[in-house]
Amino acid sequence: MARIDVTVRGAGIFGLSVAYACLQSGARVRVVDPHGPGAGASGGLVGALAPHVPEGWNPKKAFQFESLILSRSFWPEVEALSGLASGYAATGRLQSLADARAVELARAREAGAAELWEGKAAWQVIPAAEAGAWVPPSPSGVLVRDTLTARLHPAQAVASLAAAVQALGGEVVREAGDEGAVVWATGAAGLETLSRELGRNVGTGVKGQAAVLDLDVRDAPQLFVDGLHVVPHGDGTTAVGSTSERDYADPSATDAALDDVVARARAAVPALAEPRVLHRWAGVRPRAKSRAPMLGAWPDRPGHFIANGGFKIGFGIAPLAGQVMADLVLEGRGRIPEGFGVAASLR
Predict the structure, then answer these.
(1) What's the rounded Cα separation, in Å, for the pair 17 and 319?
(2) 72, 130, 187, 309: most buried, per Cβ within 10 A?
(3) Region 269-294: what's the mean pLDDT?
(4) Can you say whether residue 177 is alpha, beta or left, with left for phi > 0 and alpha for psi between -120 and 50 degrees?
């Protein structure tokens, strides 16, 4: 067997995206994960690919914007290779606005998006009556509609990407040693390991809980209401979530915190009042100290690299994160924003 050029440790969204990009550049790649693809935080339920607000523009927001636009071609290409659905669709998002101050701020953001989003997507303030029947209650009578937000089904997307990696000749295995360059994309456990080895805290895990309800509005936009994401999926279900818990005893157990999420979603969106809960999920998402993704070379360990800390935006930035990490690992080229670099979590 030919020598492996890149070993990727971790078969979540970051690890698989790096593997996919390295394979597209001609490298021989092996992904190693003892638990299989999507066993950690990447196997969640919500799948909201939502942008940051279009104000205070900076390289990190520009990177996220570029990746969300790239997603429009990335996921269809992955599906074509794998033959498996990812659940991706650019369905947009509606957000309620509570009062006149919120409307004023939203209109300022509308102007910012018109300039910064390059005509590729829009952030619009619209009358609630224009949005149809699937709308969040909005005391102001108007909503934000953005067309940059998209959705995917996390577990389906990871399975599709893992199959695409294999279709390109990559390996996805449970056990193997290191060969070639090594990319560590091992989630919350990886942040703990990195903290121990560097003798400082570089990040931690944050528990999240979410639920899937038996409601088929698959072509409707996402809703963001009462701090919750309500995401219609292409399989005829609707996901709601999520919590952010720093303190927890059991990382995989759902509890009263999720009951509260479901109750709030039912209260905010009348169509959710009756559908039954089909599935409950809990998992630990990796949050780097900088609260931004952690991409780059492992300090003082030549040939080793880190792709971690996706937290709530991992799926949204993964297509571009995979590309820039492949450029760094294979060619030594870097265009990772400083705020997404490893050093940002070492300060």
Answers:
(1) 6
(2) 309
(3) 96
(4) beta
What is the H or E stretch that residue 325 is in?
helix 314-331
pLDDT of residue 223: 96
Residue 136 CA to residue 126 CA, distance in Å, equals 13
Whether the ω angle into residue 290 lies within 30 degrees of 0, i.e. cis, is: no
Residue-wise pLDDT tens digits, 19-60: 999 999 999 999 999 999 999 999 999 999 999 888 899 999
Determine the Cα–Cα distance for residues 24 and 212; give it in Å rounded to an integer. 34
Domain ranges of the chain: 6-86+151-203+289-345, 204-288
Count of C-beta atoms within a 10 Å radius of residue 101: 10
Instruction: Please indicate, yes or no, whether the overall pTM of this predicted structure exceeds 0.85.
Output: yes
pLDDT tens profile 117-133 = 999 999 999 999 888 88
How high is the pLDDT of residue 39? 94
The predicted pLDDT at position 2 comes to: 72
- CA–CA dist 45, 231 (Å, integer): 9
- For the CA atoms of 133, 139, 141, 143, the dihedral, rounded to the nearest 10 degrees, stands at -70
CATH number for the domain formed by residue range(s) 204-288: 3.30.9.10
C-beta separation of 10 from 42 below 8 A: no
Is residue 134 within 8 A of residue 272, CB to CB? The reply is no
3-state secondary structure at position 260? helix
Cβ contact 218:236 at 8 Å: yes
| Cβ-contact 82, 164 below 8 angstroms | yes
**Of the candidates 264, 341, 335, 338, which has an alpha carbon nearest to the alpha carbon of residue 299?**
341
CB under 8 Å to 325, separation ≥6 — which residues?
Answer: 17, 18, 21, 183, 295, 305, 307, 336
Domain 6-86+151-203+289-345 has CATH 3.30.70.660: no
Q: What percent of the chain has pLDDT over 70?
A: 100
